[in-house]
Structure formats: C-alpha cells, structure tokens
Amino acid sequence: MPERRKPVASTPCATGCPELSFWTWRLPKRLLSADSETPARLESEGLAVAGTRFTYATGRLILWSADANGVDAQGDVLRQGRIARLAVADPRLSPYGAATFQAMTRLGVLESLRPRLVRGESIGQAWQFAASGNAQAGFVALAQVWEGGRIARGSAWLVPADLHAPLRQDAALLAPGRQHAGARAFLDFLKGPQARAIIRDHGYEL
Questions:
Q1: Segment 156-184, tens digit of pLDDT
Q2: How many Å apart are CA 77 and CA 152, to the nearest integer?
Q3: I need a labelling partner for 24 at 20 to 30 A (CA). Which of 115, 160, 168, 173 fits?
C-alpha cells in the first residue's frame, strides 16, 4: 500500500461539503481549495504555477435549523435566547468557522451565545450537529442545504456577506502539472459558463 500523504487540498462536493479534505495517493496536478490562503501560499512557495490562481467560487454562510420554525428570516433568533445549542465550525480550522465568529462579533451576540456553542472540527460536522437535532441550529454553508434553487428543508437566515470576510475558494495549477494539458484544460473549464452554472446551482456565488 502506498504511503499516505498529508492532506493537500479541499474541494466542495455536490452533497454540500465545502471543506471535504481528501488524502492524496499520488502527486496532484491541480488544486481546488476551500479557501484562498492555501493556493496563495503554495504559489509563494513555488509549489503552484504563478499566474494560474483564480477564485472559482465564493461560499455563503447561513444560520440554519432542521426545524421549519427554528430560524427566522432576519436572524433575530440569535438574540431571543431560544437556541440552547448552536453548532459552529472551529474558527482555527475552518474558513466558515472564522466567518461565523466574525459575524457573531459584529452582530454583538458572541458573548451571550458562547456558552451555547457546540464546535465541530469542520463545517460538515457543524451541519451534522444541526441536521441530527443535537443542536437546535447551526452556522453552516449555504451549499450544504441548497437544492433545486432553494433551501431543501428547515429554515434559514442568509448571513449578510458584509458581516464577515469573503469565503473565496481558489484554484491553481500545481507545479507538477505545469506541462499537463489536461490539468490546464480542467482549470479553463472551471472558468467557462457550464462549470459556473453548476457551481451556482450548488449554492455558491461567483
């Protein structure tokens, strides 16, 4: 069995896993990241080809409950004391977690909600807490609950984008793929109308 390498990338998935880390069994030629910092760092270290980095999607943060009446459209529930357990992603590990804490801070509700927070290691785990009912609501990614152009179930408040740093997700050509026509063609495809429509349909902005 080949040696397991450390995770080098994250990618959004069709089922709404914006930070689904994967393990690599061979050296990759392209990177689809769940953040913008990782591709920028790899480019600065010479591990990604300069000039190939671009934003292929921008995520949106929402407050979501599996209960159809759990969250109001203005997010006022955050100030009403009705949420006993609120799922969040760890801000040290997750871009969505960092955005969550930025939003709560700017809303002035972080300290009142802090004792009620249930932390997941990723946005996927935060969604699991909220979807299972172990938390009454959670800050999750829109992509996790978006289906057919709407929230698939439950209730939600779309967090205004100006309450947190942009959730940009960047792609880049890695150094081993410099001469790989297929890798370059895939990145070109991501910039085209077909891919952009797919990305938008899964709850991301462009």
A1: 999 999 999 999 999 999 998 888 898 89
A2: 20
A3: 168
